[in-house]
Amino acid sequence: MKAREPKKARGRVKWDEENLNDIESNKPEREKITEPKTPYHPMIDEDEGPVSPLRLSEDSVDKSAHADAIKTALAEAVSSGKIFDRSGWDRCDSEEDIKQGKAFEEHRKVHYDEYHKMKELLQKGTMNDDSDEDEREVGNRKA
């Protein structure tokens, strides 16, 4: 057996002052990196200062014209009665892609079927739960 060592106080750190001073004295000098100042260009905001009534009316006219254009486009789309159907889109699936898709669906069905079988067996208690065995083994090792 090992000889008993004195217990160290928890939560306390004892610094080796000599080692720290030695490291500090032998620390290499670091080169100062001089970088130019980043140029600052203040953002010029057109909205600063008083707004002329003429400019205000031009902006509102542009926005209202844009809103009117959107309304008419939406009205035309609704009145045309066209319903966009994704099934009408052209598909670029090759035979290989279709086979891969079917194989994926089959694997997925098998996977979820196994999950349900395992769940059913665990509920019935017919399947041994590995975690119980592991706990028993750990308990036996400690004793």
Automatic annotation (TrEMBL):
Chain positions covered by the region annotation Disordered: 1-60, 122-143
GO molecular function: protein phosphatase inhibitor activity
Gene Ontology annotations of biological process type: regulation of signal transduction
Pfam families for the chain: IPP-2 (PF04979)
Composition bias, Basic and acidic residues: 1-17, 24-35
InterPro entries on file: PPI-2
Protein name per UniProt: Uncharacterized protein
